[in-house]
Amino acid sequence: MKYQPIFVVLLAILFGFASSAVAQKKGYKPHFWFMIGLFFGIFGFLALWFLPKKEEPAVYMPPPPPRDMGLWYYLDEVHTQHGPVAFSEIERLWREKKLVPTSYLWQEGMAEWKKISELPEILTILG
């Protein structure tokens, strides 16, 4: 009878570690579930055992830019028209800060000149 408190403590620690291991495999916080297993024993372990596996949140990845972006025209800081140029040239000018979000772009098929900031798909590609 004198070993009963030691047995209870060891059993609680065992449930704590078991809960922690299962929690880690299911994607839950292992430290939190260690404490639940430690204090609630088999009940905490069983609660975790029947929980579904935690799904990782989906990370949005923008689609890769199309290989051929066509020919573009742009207006420089004094609104002089340049082009037609390949999109790779637009990217180079963007990296060199010669084009900024308030710079205007136009491509055949567009109704009017648009600021780069008004073209979210272009901003995504330019980064």
In CATH, the homologous superfamily of the largest domain goes by the name: GYF domain
Oligomeric organization of the protein chains: single chain
Count of DSSP-assigned helices = 5
- Name the poorly predicted regions: none
Gap between N and C termini, in Å?
70 Å
Counted beta strands: 4
How would you describe this protein?
The structure is a single chain. With 127 residues, the protein is α+β, with helices and mostly antiparallel strands. It folds into two domains: 4-49, no CATH class; 71-126, Dna Ligase, domain 1 (2-Layer Sandwich), CATH 3.30.1490.40. It has five helices and four strands. It has helices at 4-26, 30-40, 42-49, 87-95, 120-126, and strands at 71-75, 81-86, 104-106, 114-115. A four-stranded antiparallel sheet has the order 2-1-3-4. Strand 1 and strand 2 form a beta hairpin. It starts with a helix and ends with a helix.
Keywords:
single chain, Dna Ligase, domain 1, 4-stranded antiparallel β-sheet, 5 helices, alpha+beta, 127 residues, 2 domains
Topology, element by element:
Elements: H1 4-26, H2 30-40, H3 42-49, E1 71-75, E2 81-86, H4 87-95, E3 104-106, E4 114-115, H5 120-126
Antiparallel strand pairs: 1-2, 1-3, 3-4
Helix pairs in contact: 1-2, 1-3, 2-3
Quick take:
With 127 residues, this protein is α+β, with helices and mostly antiparallel strands. It is built from five helices and four strands.
